[in-house]
Design a protein that fits this description.
about 625 residues, alpha/beta, Alkaline Phosphatase, subunit A, 5-stranded antiparallel β-sheet, 18 strands, about 10% strand
């Protein structure tokens, strides 16, 4: 009886909306197969057992059905527009088959895209995917240069057409549905009610798993994408824990490792996706970074520095604004992000010429507007002379071309007699990992791109060494973020560990600093080296000083804010959630810390103060009084 009832319900659904029923079955099957494939690939890393895998599959099916239910009203309305109880002609029947083919192709394309996204980021579609939808030119170009797109899409098209043709007798019922108009209207109204109800009660909190991999596997990519799109602006004070603010302890100077005479110029090289693990100093034995390893031994090497995030905009934010990362979008993406207290603004008060040079197109991630509005002159590949654009891919020109044009520009700036800040952003160590032939002994791929990036920066330093301005210049070589953010926990510390070298032979003695430090500490360190007055409100701290603590770093994703110390990690999340973890010698989670804990107060205080300054306009630049301004 039960079985007959279900059969009648299914038959009624097919009779009422056969095209939607067909697409719904395809949706569930495709996403279930995708989940099974991703689980197989990630079984060991996700620490899956048969019991946990069954739970992930069950939760995942629930997420798939919720995502389908949210899309159902639109699908039903589309099918209603295609069908009529009048006899169907050739045009209407062709329209139904075309919509079925396009719908199934889109579903297959989405599943394929999600597989590639997971392969790179280890997560479902999230805020990164939302950002990438804005810059389709770069993203589509990157996919075309990285994968056999024509072959994959051709195969998908063939499979789609075959399935549509095999199902044509079912699908063509949509052109002349047997169900009465009243039944179809009632079905549509019911779908709207179900979608509205699920939208109000279902959330990402329904994910299941004992680690981040399992939670991501149990979700649905389209639902995750929609969630990220609707939650890209997050007010700290509405969603995160707050505490009374505390005053930081004073710092004392380190034993002097810099000369009494400060340098004059600054060159910041932000290297794309260069994890510390690629260097010999990070334990790599493949010899991928001989130049960086050599420079690390000749300058101030910050061996335990951590990036603030896993996106380039977070790195550029830290290296210009020197603030802990706020939840949601980077300041670079936000409104009212002009005339801020950036490194460029401070140096402009002292007569500096500031430039930001990017190997790609600076409209990506709003870099051009942000730097132009904050006392930098942005220069991107579109402004490079033809001689410096002979090799490139969708993301940008080869690093060597960026460096060659930067050298020409710095020669002109030095000849003008003004001190300069040159902030460079590379692109070669990014998919599709292409670079000019004959430079290194590795083929195209991540290891080759890392070695090429190292070759190019080593060549750049050697060419700069012959310049008359070299002796008065400090070079800061640092990554924007790590190559991967995948991990079993939401904030794996090892995936934020990046190299940083402060190099200036005439001014900085060789020294390895193993203290835990943050990417936001580099701006105060540069100003400390230049001997400029400490009138700024940067929230980082100079590594040329000692502090009463053992070091700290700020690491974050889009919503999770981490405060890292050598033996502890505090994580703040929406819903005013607080996680407090003890770390072992390998910086892996060893167990929870019992509350109350003073480190939690410090973590909340740092992020809360950052949010307060952003909310109250206190990140704005305050010009120096005329008496202190360099003319």
């Amino acid at each position: 009886m039960h079985s007959n009832s279900r059969f009648r319900s299914l038959s009624a659904l097919e009779a009422t909306y056969p095209l939607t029923a067909w697409l719904a079955i395809g949706f569930v099957l495709l996403h279930s197969c995708l989940r099974a494939v991703l689980m197989t690939q990630t079984w060991h890393a996700a620490q899956l057992t048969f019991a946990s895998a069954a739970a992930v599959l069950g939760t995942g099916l629930a997420f798939d059905l919720v995502a389908l239910a949210l899309a159902l009203p639109a699908l039903l309305m589309l099918e209603a527009a295609l069908g009529s109880r009048k006899p169907a002609g050739r045009i209407r029947r062709g329209g139904v088959l075309a919509v079925a083919a396009l719908g199934l192709f889109a579903l297959g394309f989405g599943v394929m895209a999600e597989w590639f996204f997971w392969d790179e980021f280890g997560v479902r579609f999230n805020f990164i995917a939302v950002d990438y939808l804005v810059y389709t030119r770069e993203v589509v170009g990157n996919i075309r240069e990285s994968f056999p797109v024509g072959t994959l899409l051709g195969a998908l098209a063939v499979i789609t057409l075959a399935l549509v043709w095999a199902s044509r007798s079912w699908l063509l019922r949509a052109a002349s549905p047997a169900a009465k108009r009243n039944a179809r209207v009632v079905a549509w109204l019911a779908s709207v009610a179900v979608a509205a109800g699920l939208a109000s009660v279902w959330s990402m909190d329904a994910r299941h798993g004992s680690n981040e991999y399992q939670k991501e596997l149990s979700a649905n990519g389209l639902y995750s994408l929609g969630y990220a799109f609707g939650n890209n602006e997050i007010d700290y004070f509405d969603f995160y824990a707050t505490r009374p603010l505390t005053v930081a302890a004073p710092a004392a100077a380190l034993p002097r490792i810099v000369s009494a005479t400060p340098p004059k110029n600054i060159v910041i090289v932000t290297m794309e996706s260069l994890s510390s693990s690629y260097m010999a100093h990070g334990g790599n034995t493949r010899g991928l970074t001989p130049n960086l390893d050599r420079l690390a031994g000749q300058g101030l090497f910050l061996a335990n520095l951590h990036a603030t995030g896993n996106r380039t905009v977070r790195g550029l934010e830290a290296l210009s604004l020197a603030i802990p990362p706020l939840p949601g979008h980077s300041i670079i993406w936000r409104k009212h992000n002009q005339n801020l207290e950036t490194l460029g603004a401070v140096l402009a008060d002292h007569g500096y010429v500031n430039r930001f040079m990017y190997g790609g197109y600076a409209r990506f991630d709003n870099m051009d507007a942000y730097f132009a509005g904050n006392h930098y002159q942005p220069i991107d590949r579109g402004q490079f002379p033809e001689r410096h654009r002979s090799f490139g891919n969708i993301w940008g020109v080869a690093d060597e071309h960026l460096y060659d044009y930067a050298l020409e520009q710095m020669d002109r700036d030095a000849a003008s007699g003004k001190p300069f800040l040159m902030h460079l952003m590379t692109t070669s160590n990014h998919t599709p990992f292409t670079f000019p032939e004959g430079r290194i002994d590795l083929p195209r791929g991540r290891p080759g791109a890392v070695k090429y990036s190292d070759w190019a920066v080593g060549r750049f330093i050697e060419q700069a060494r012959s310049k008359p301005w070299f002796k008065d210049t400090v070079f800061v070589l640092v990554a924007d973020h790590c190559a991967s953010s995948k991990g079993r926990v939401s904030l794996p510390p090892e995936n934020y560990h990046i190299p940083a070298i402060v190099y200036s032979p005439a001014h900085v003695a060789p020294h390895i600093d193993t203290r835990l430090a943050s990417q936001i500490d580099l701006v105060p360190t540069v100003l400390d080296l230049l001997g400029l007055p400490e009138h700024t409100r940067f929230m980082g701290r100079s590594v040329l000083h000692i502090y009463p603590d053992a070091g700290r770093a700020f690491i974050a994703t889009y919503q999770k804010l981490g405060y890292l110390t050598p033996d502890q990690l505090v994580v703040l999340s929406p819903g005013r959630k607080i996680e407090d973890w003890r770390l072992d010698a390998h910086q892996e989670l060893a167990g929870p810390v019992h509350q109350p804990d003073t480190l939690v107060t410090r973590a909340i205080g740092a992020y809360q103060e950052t949010a307060r300054r952003a909310r109250d306009g206190l990140l704005q630049h305050v010009n120096l009084p005329d008496g202190l301004r360099v003319r």
